[in-house]
Amino acid sequence: MGPPRRLLLVSNSTLRGGGYLGHCQQQVRSFFGQKVKRVLFIPYALHDRDAYAKTAREKFESLGYGLDSIHESSDPVEAVRKSEAIFIGGGNTFRLLKVLYDNSLLQEIRKRVLEDGIPYMGSSAGTNLATISINTTNDMPIVYPPSLQALGLVPFNINPHYLDPDVNSTHMGETRAERIRQYHEEPNTPPVLGLREGAMLLVEGDKATLQGVTGARLFLRGEKPTEHEPGTDFSFLLTDSNSQKP
């Protein structure tokens, strides 16, 4: 049995009034700790990878970590195999997943995280990617990955940037909750954790804890959604028996 998985799954990279990863920098520093010296950044969710890497590098260096961007490597698979920590940023989840499939990186990342125990941090699209599938992303399918199946580091799905219905809005489109309910109308669909901006999920082995400054809403198929405050223990979601309801 290998070392326990360690995941930091952040809803969003930027919170209103703060800079890039500013709202979660304390959690980032605590999560990577002093053992990690360099983080492998995966910027595939955005088109301008150079600019994205520059932004991430400046932030991580300010926190005391070196950052290598996978798009600068001549051998992305080898970059993952040699990495001591991974951070996958936000952007378009379909674009991100397609590039990972195209470069045969999904299994490599999964192995490093689940078998070798290196820490994995995701933000927005990178958080979607850590779950069973990207079915509950908010993004448009601007490209077509060969599958919607993702890394499966946890046996449920997440909806980042979760928005509560605005009772004063005149917008007639579906609310986020309605879209998640539509997803659960399909058989054998797993729980969906709606992470509001400012929220994040810390997974250490078989323990999952809600962190951040905002709460989350949990959707289980066939049940009424429930509200949860920071500090909530979501470890029960990590058991496969809770992952799907027929």
TrEMBL record:
<keyword id="KW-0720">Serine protease</keyword>
<keyword id="KW-0963">Cytoplasm</keyword>
<dbReference type="GO" id="GO:0006508">
    <property type="term" value="P:proteolysis"/>
</dbReference>
<dbReference type="GO" id="GO:0005737">
    <property type="term" value="C:cytoplasm"/>
</dbReference>
<keyword id="KW-0378">Hydrolase</keyword>
<dbReference type="InterPro" id="IPR029062">
    <property type="entry name" value="Class_I_gatase-like"/>
</dbReference>
<keyword id="KW-0176">Collagen</keyword>
<comment type="function">
    <text>Hydrolyzes dipeptides containing N-terminal aspartate residues.</text>
</comment>
<dbReference type="InterPro" id="IPR005320">
    <property type="entry name" value="Peptidase_S51"/>
</dbReference>
<feature type="region of interest" description="Disordered">
    <location>
        <begin position="224"/>
        <end position="246"/>
    </location>
</feature>
<keyword id="KW-0645">Protease</keyword>
<comment type="similarity">
    <text>Belongs to the peptidase S51 family.</text>
</comment>
<protein>
    <recommendedName>
        <fullName>dipeptidase E</fullName>
        <ecNumber>3.4.13.21</ecNumber>
    </recommendedName>
</protein>
<dbReference type="Pfam" id="PF03575">
    <property type="entry name" value="Peptidase_S51"/>
</dbReference>
<dbReference type="GO" id="GO:0016805">
    <property type="term" value="F:dipeptidase activity"/>
</dbReference>
<dbReference type="GO" id="GO:0005581">
    <property type="term" value="C:collagen trimer"/>
</dbReference>
<dbReference type="GO" id="GO:0008236">
    <property type="term" value="F:serine-type peptidase activity"/>
</dbReference>
<keyword id="KW-0224">Dipeptidase</keyword>
